[in-house]
Structure formats: C-alpha cells, structure tokens
C-alpha cells in the first residue's frame, strides 16, 4: 500500500540529492499525484494511445517504469494480441515494488498481457524490435549528454508505424512564462497539502538530479534522433506528454 508523502516535512540540516530509494518507493504514488499536474490523465491516456500503436505480437518497452503505472494502464487497455511488455528501471526499490503491483494486477485481469520487470540502466540496454516505447518522466533524469543516443536507439528499435510516448517536465526560454508556470506549479503543490518547507526541500533535493528541457529542445532532439514527426498531445502547467512517430 502507498503511504502519504511526508519525506520532506521536517527540516534537514543538509538536503541530499533525491534518490529513488525504499522510502520514496513507499510514498511514490502519493508523491507523484500531488506533484505532477495531470498525472492520472497521462497514465490513463497512455493505455489509450498504446491501443492505437501497439502492433500484434510485438514487444513494448516502459523505460524508467518506476512502479509500473504506465505498464498497468497499457495492460488494462490493450486487447490480448500477443504483446509483451518489458518494464525497466535502475532503482531496485522501485523494481521490487513494481513487481508486487503487477503481480496483484495479474489476479485482477482475465487475460493479462505478459509483463516482465528488470533492473537495468536504460542507457546501457540493447533494445529489441518493438512497436511502442514509453518514457514517462524518465528522460529528464538521464544525463543530458546521453539523451540523444538513447532516443536514437529507441528510434532504431521501433518497427515501421511504431511510436514513442515521451512525458516530461518543461522549462521555458521566455522568463515570464517560466516564472508564471513555476509559480502555478508551486500553487498546485500547496493546494495538495505540501508546506513551504516541503516544497523548498524537495526542490533542493531534485535540482541536481532532474534537468528538464524546453519543448523546442525535445522536438529538435527527436528529429535529430530520426523520428519523422512529433507532437504535443497533453500539457498541464509545466508538464507535458508527446507522441513521436517512427
């Protein structure tokens, strides 16, 4: 069961860099729902999008799967057509809990789509041919100098007609837009019960770990990686999701 996120509720003498450890894994569903505007909509829509792009008898990747919310959504929405989902994360604590969640989902679905969870660094993974790849708030945690190479490998692995779903936090080159949407995001967190201390300490913890890009950078990088076209399908404040076509 998920617990309430109060990891940053008490003052720290030194705020360490954010890590996806067991403490985070316990509260992650609550944390991300209260921190990312539109997250439930994104997750449910990933299943809907998967139904359009997942080709029968092909592999699907959920890269940086965390607790497997996107994988669970795809398993709810996709018909049984011989697909297999490979969910990958480099945090052992997240992988362990993800496996528990998917095992529980197995008991709830009549014909669950095969899903495997592995602990690995997605930048070192050799991708097999696939029809759909999900990077749901993952690329922003990949070192910037490795992002293009990862996207190129994804593009090369995608079958004709395949697609990438890419969800990310955005920054904005226009300072007025950046300041406005950042302030609204903090307001969103306050409305969900986070204190000023929690917001400030979480910001300090994650600023050296998560490095978001502007939308224009994402779009150009996707073109440079070989994708034929990409478009925004969702944005709420400074969070978005895109579809990139092979």
UniProtKB/TrEMBL annotation:
It comes from Halopseudomonas pachastrellae. S-adenosyl-L-methionine binds at residues 39, 64-66, 89-90, 121-122, 136, 203. GO terms for molecular function: carboxyl- or carbamoyltransferase activity; S-adenosyl-L-methionine binding. It is an enzyme of class 2 (transferase). Homodimer. It comes from the Bacteria. The keyword Transmembrane does not apply. This is Carboxy-S-adenosyl-L-methionine synthase. Residues 60-162 form the Methyltransferase domain. Keywords: S-adenosyl-L-methionine, Transferase.
């Amino acid at each position: 069961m998920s617990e309430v996120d109060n990891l940053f509720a008490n003052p720290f003498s030194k705020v360490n860099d954010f890590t996806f450890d067991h403490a985070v894994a316990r509260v992650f569903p609550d944390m991300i729902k209260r921190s990312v505007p539109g997250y439930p909509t994104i997750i449910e829509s990933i299943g809907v999008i998967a139904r359009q792009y997942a080709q029968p008898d092909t592999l699907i990747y959920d890269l940086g799967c965390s607790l497997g919310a996107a994988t669970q959504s795809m398993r709810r929405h996709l018909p049984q057509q011989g697909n297999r989902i490979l969910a990958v994360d480099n945090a052992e604590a997240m992988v362990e809990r993800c496996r528990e969640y998917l095992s529980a989902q197995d008991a709830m679905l009549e014909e669950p789509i095969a899903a495997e969870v592995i602990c690995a660094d997605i930048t070192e993974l050799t991708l097999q041919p696939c029809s759909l790849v999900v990077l749901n708030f993952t690329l922003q945690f990949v070192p910037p100098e490795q992002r293009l190479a990862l996207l190129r490998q994804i593009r090369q692995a995608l079958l004709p007609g395949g697609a990438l779903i890419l969800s990310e936090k955005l920054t904005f080159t226009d300072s007025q837009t950046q300041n406005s949407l950042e302030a609204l995001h903090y307001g969103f967190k306050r409305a969900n019960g986070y204190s000023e201390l929690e917001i400030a300490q979480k910001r300090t913890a994650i600023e050296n770990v998560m490095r978001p890009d502007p939308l224009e950078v994402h779009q150009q990088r996707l073109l440079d990686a070989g994708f034929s076209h990409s478009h925004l399908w969702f944005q709420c404040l400074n969070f978005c999701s895109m579809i990139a076509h092979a």
